[in-house]
Amino acid sequence: MESLSWAEIITRIFIQFTPVWVLLIATFALSIKFKRRLGLYGKLFDSTIGMIGFALVMFWVYTGICAGLFDMIATHDPLTQVSGMKNKVPGTPLRGAEAGDYPYYLLGGDNLARDVFSRLVKGSWIVVLIAPLATLFAFMTGITLGLPAGYYGKRFDTIISFTANLVLAFPVILLFYLLVTPEIVDSGVPHIMATVLFAFPLVFTAVLLNSRFHTEPAKRNKFMALTLIPMAALYLTVVSEQGTVVALLPDAVDPVSIPGGILVVFVSVVFVNSPTVFRIVRGLTLDIKTRDYVAAAQTRGESAWYIMLWEILPNARGPLIVDFCLRIGYTTILLGTLGFFGLGLPPESPDWGSTINDGRKLLSIYLHPALPPAFALLSLVLGLNLLADGLREESLRD
Amino acid sequence: MGRFILRRSAVMILTALCLTFVVFFLTNLYPNLEKLAKTQGDMRMSEEDVGRWLDRNGYTRSVFIKYGEWLGVVPGFTRQEVNSDGETVTIGRCIEPGQNPAEAATFCGVLQGEWGFSTVFKKDVSEIVGTRLALTGKLMFFVMILMVPAALILGVLAGMREGSRTDRGFSTISILTTATPEYVSGVILIAVFASSAVGLKWFKGTATSAMDDATFNNFFLPVLTIALYGMGYIARMTRASMAEVMTAQYIRTARLKGVSFRNIVLKHALRNALIAPFTVIMLQFPWLLNGVVIVETLFNYKGVGWALVSAAGNNDIELLLGISVVSVFVVLITQLISDIGYVYLNPRISVT
Predict the structure, then answer these.
(1) Same domain for B27 and B136?
(2) Counted domains in chain B
(3) What residues in A contact B307, CB-CB < 8 Å?
(4) Strands B78-82, B117-118: parallel, antiparallel or unpaired by DSSP?
(5) I want to staple A108 with a disulfide (CB 3.0 to 4.6 A). Which of A90, A190, B190, B274 is the partner?
(6) Helix and strand numbers, DSSP H then E, in chain A
């Protein structure tokens, strides 16, 4: 078989992404049709920059979901090595292709003869899954600590702020090297940190519900049972791991076992991000707590946590949403950094940082293994930045 | 002002102590020590041998005492021991092999300038850190020369006419550069300018030769890679601050008086608009350190970042500690300078 020309490669890639195009067009059509009823999200579709950003982000989100959950888009298995395909240029026909195999390596083969295109597509799932989740956890931690620090001030604020500054003064890469090396993982430090950091969403939800509904115990108990019992079960199964320091549950009732590497990567990314979120939330709280509606709530005799979570937090949401988008981008960059240094994730993992690292070693001869993940990461982070810009512009408008 | 600097310095020293302790604690966890014992002694050591080796070299004591020793505020340990010839000798942390125990110093830690011995490079840590720091300093110097003026010009030009086409264009460029981490831009730049296959072959893809003799040819790509990532953020901050200043009353007054736009920008707006970017530039240092590690690895430039990666990868505890101390101090001192500079540049802010 002949190798494909560039035009054919682009056409074929375009066809491979069909489910993503369909979903994207559907999302945009629906959102633009109903944009007046969708609040801030709908206003996003008034700004060109915001729409471009949103399209880039959703492109990768849909790619990640389609490839990761439904096994679409990718043409080959990201880990299978096919002999004779090592470092082959884009569009090379697959050697020894059988019926049912996709007959080409669309973006060529890497130095272990794996399909670059499939690895790129599968890698997006890792990024799309970990980055927003880790950012969400960092926000939970930052909010749960930042609200009281800003609201109460005094000694509590001093201690927490000092700790946050400690983490911020740490060079990030040094911290990663300290947390992610196998020796440290053996000693259980990351697992202890996971136990602490993952508890924050639980605490956050409990306090959130209690402060709102404590006057109606029946309702409160119902809500709390509905949310907290599943969360606590999830927390225990995720945190508890046989053979580590945190073996809370016996093996029989511990069905979920997160691969050690991913847990450690997750924890270190949350740990690095939460002090910055803390500082932002604290600053916003200091500003908002002087407003009249807070004074009104205090006069009504509302509890401190009610004021923090139901008066201050909703009014700080604008800057927080914008920062959330930016921070997912930053987390993506951090994940890539970890992959680039070969930390945490298994070496054959198709995530973009690891593939860039693999590809860069032969960069002076073969460009095709390193460039696609580099551009993928670039476009996702760019999309998040543009989305944040669009959101900021639109939320400032009213 | 004096009291402010004093208080900030005290907090800084406390922070440095806490941070070095954390690094010390993490690098001295048992699995690390076990690996150290095996690489220094014998790979096939049994559990007991490892224990004995660690015991003999003073690693099994409390982490606080060890930290004190490393810092140089607790006397280094000494112990009487019978050697293979049957003689009783004194060994200890501060006693070099073959040195008379009576002449050895009581304290030997970082404060006395004893940074320890690197197990990877087989040299004193202070010597390694010194030479590597000089190399990284060179890199950073050129990064600053390229990054700061470029970012400020970009920001000022974008911010002086907010919403214009120039503003849109430059803002897009700054967003693009902030969205491109060093390992992405480095890879792309190498591919375009240095690859022997299809690239333009204008520059060299490695900077190893730049360590002795930096030329435009071998040093431009690493410098550009770090500068690009930092530049976008500074440019956006400059743009925001410039745009804010341009809407101020005194600028309007100047325009109504008929001062030319050029003079307004250069004489009236610029000084006030540059206060915020100054702090940002200083606070960029911790990020730049990140970039330095990535770029030094990518371009094989053997500076501090490269040494950090090899120390961490090879469990070189003392070198890792040495580099952590240096990097933590760089971060803290830039924070201090940024705070002081902010107060100094902006008379509206009082420290009391």
Answers:
(1) no
(2) 2
(3) none
(4) unpaired
(5) A90
(6) 18, 2
Number of domains into which chain A is organized: 2
Looking at the structure, do residues A23 and A134 belong to the same domain, yes or no? no
pLDDT digit string, tens, across residues A239-274: 776 666 666 666 555 555 666 678 888 888 999 899
Bridge partners of A104, per DSSP, are A93
In this complex, the residue of A169, A183, A365 whose CB is nearest that of residue B15 is: A169
- B350 has a pLDDT exceeding 70: no
| Cβ-defined contact of B175 to A189 (cutoff 8 Å) | no
For chain B, give the number of residues.
352
Structural domain includes residue B140: yes
* Domain match, B93 and B163 both: no
Would you list the DSSP string of A136-195? Answer: HHHHHHHHHHHHHHHHH-HHHHHHHHHHHHHHHHS-HHHHHHHHHSHHHHHHTHHHHHHH
Nearest to A254 by CA among A278, A234, A277, A226: A234
Q: Is residue A108 part of a domain?
A: yes
Contact: A170, B328; criterion CB under 8 Å: yes
3-state secondary structure of A233: helix
| Residue numbers in B near A337 (CB within 8 A) | 181, 183, 290, 294
Q: Are residues B150 and B256 in the same domain?
A: yes
**Does residue B58 lie within any of the structural domains?**
yes
State pTM to two decimals.
0.87
Q: Which residues of A touch B184 (CB under 8 A)?
A: 336, 356, 374-375, 377-378
Residue range B299-333, pLDDT digits in tens? 888 888 889 888 888 888 888 888 888 888 888 88
Residues A24 and A134 occupy one common structural domain: no
> A320 and A183, same structural domain?
yes
Do B101 and B171 have their domain in common?
A: no
**How close, in Å, is residue B289 to chain A by CA atoms?**
7
Q: Do A143 and A256 have their domain in common?
A: yes
| Per-window interface: A 350-389 vs B, CB < 8 A | 353, 356-357, 359-360, 363-367, 370-371, 374-375, 377-378, 381-382, 384-386, 389
Q: Are the C-beta atoms of residues B193 and B221 closer than 8 Å to each other?
A: yes
**Integer Rg of chain B from CA:** 26
* Domain that includes residue A103, residue range: 6-123+360-397
Whole-Å CA distances, B170 to B144, B164, B236, B245, B275: 20, 10, 9, 18, 21
